[in-house]
Amino acid sequence: MKAPERYFDAFYERLAKRLETDKREFSHGFSVPNGYFEQSKNKFTRLRFGERLKKWLLKQHCAG
User: What domain of life does the native source organism fall in (predicted)?
Assistant: First the structure.
């Protein structure tokens, strides 16, 4: 089941705000902290989610 795009946008926005307030979560540029994916056992899902999050964060950063 696919979640609506607006769900992802809202989720990424909250996550980006959290990452901004806690700089320790960023290790290299826009890399995504492993802790966010520890609960997922599906590597393919983790990879796709991570790539989407990186693209979204990069888009937000460039737009700002």
Answer: Bacteria
2 three-state secondary structure: coil
> Own/partner pairs for 3-11, CB < 8 Å, 24+ apart?
8/52, 8/56, 9/56
If phi > 0 it is left, if psi is from -120 to 50 it is alpha, else beta; for residue 58 that is: alpha
Spell out the SS3 assignment of 32-60: CCHHHHCCCCCHHHHHHHHHHHHHHHHHH
Domain segments of the chain as ranges: 5-63
Whole-number Å distance between alpha carbons of 57 and 15: 9
Q: Which two tokens stand for residue 4?
A: 């609506």
For each successive 10 residues of the chain (64 residues), what is the average pLDDT? 63 72 48 48 57 75 66
